[in-house]
Amino acid sequence: SVTGVQTCALPIFLIGLGIALASFAVVWIASDTGLELAEAMRLGGLTWLVANGATVVIAGVSYSLLPWGLLLIPILLLGYAGGWAVRRGRVDDLRGVALIVLPGTALYAIAGGVVSFATARSTTSIDPLGAVIACALVSLVALSFGAVRASGLHRMHGVPWLGPIARAAAVGVAAIVGAGAIAAAASLLLHLDDAITMAQSLHPGLWGGLGLLLIGIAYVPVAVVWGASYLVGAGVVLGPGVMVSPFIAAVSPTDLPPFPLLAAVPQSSSPMAWLLPVVGVLAGVLLGLSVLRAARHEPRLVRVLVAAVACAGAGLGLAVLAFLSAGGLGNGRLIQLGPSPVTV
Fewer CB atoms inside 10 A, N or C side of the chain? Predict the structure, then answer.
């Protein structure tokens, strides 16, 4: 029986919201910001909603560029909760998993809607329906992953080549994303002076500087995916008509926020940058070697077909990452930022 463990998402909601509220409470106690405690708690609730993928609206302008670093927290907590509920309920079939995941998703989504109503103000708010949908998607994916993995249903022996295809696709994605991380870090180091200048221009103070650091950490995964998109040649969009790509000699200047992490965005391209998309070819080689390990004794045509499907899976995985790394940070030139999923 899974009775009693169907509400596994509720404690995770309380834990995640409690972390956000406690963080702002500490800042409120330790600093002289002029905020009332109730306003600090409201900002904590907004932060929790943004961490679950909701779009915040400030003075009528939507900010939808998702800070992945925050999103990882509820995903990990919900994934653990799904696995715990399955083990506690001794579930080993699809029906039992559904009886855990679906009610948990519903509770988490309702909690997101309640928090969005509670934190709404005339100048800053989050659309309740959007908050419900975002929280539902996050909880559905994370709870399902944790529950399916703990139940053993992911070992689908009846589906041929599913395991090798998934592993090979993951190898390809990991290779490209890893190269993107190296490229983003190298570019940020090369433009470190610009990043420091941007940070100093904001005059953040001690607690503001700490907040700026945490926001930067939260957006590191986004910068990594931008780097991966640049390396494979898809480029990164910086507003209407502005593209950063290794195939474009120079990009039109665009007014970006004085955010230190954006200093890593290259403002020009050398002829050697045309060689960067070879990273995708090398990732394909690693993917092929993964297929070879699993299908060494199979006919050549089988290996080619398995590799082709794995390549399609890797492309789809990168497209999902690109979709999550695109959005807006305001209006005008900042209404569209990030890579195009289809192009990636």
Answer: N
Instruction: Answer for the pair 195, 260: CB distance below 8 angstroms, yes or no.
Output: yes
Tokens of 43: 């900002």
Query: What pLDDT is attached to residue 158?
Result: 55
Distances in whole angstroms, Cα of residue 242 to Cα of each of 129, 238, 305, 310? 32, 5, 38, 32
Helices in the chain by DSSP H: which ranges?
A: 9-30, 37-51, 68-89, 94-119, 128-151, 162-190, 192-201, 205-218, 220-231, 278-294, 300-324
State the chain's mean pLDDT as an integer: 83
Instruction: With beta carbons less than 8 A apart as the criterion, state whether 244 and 266 touch.
Output: yes
End-to-end CA distance of the chain: 45
pLDDT recorded at residue 282: 94
Q: Is the dihedral of CA 196, 200, 206, 211 positive or negative?
A: negative
Of 56, 43, 12, the C-alpha closest to 211 is 43
* pLDDT tens profile 103-146: 888 888 998 898 888 888 877 878 888 889 999 999 999 988 88
Contact 262, 198 (CB under 8 A): yes
Identify the residue with better confidence: 273 or 74.
Answer: 74
d(CA 304, CA 308): 6
Residue 125 sits at φ, ψ, to 5 deg, of -160, 170
CA atoms 244, 249, 254, 260: torsion sign: positive
What predicted TM-score, i.e. pTM, was given to this entire model? 0.83
- Which of these, 161, 178, 103, 183, lies nearest to 290 by C-alpha position? 161
Sheet of 61-63, strands arranged across: 61-63, 56-58, 124-126
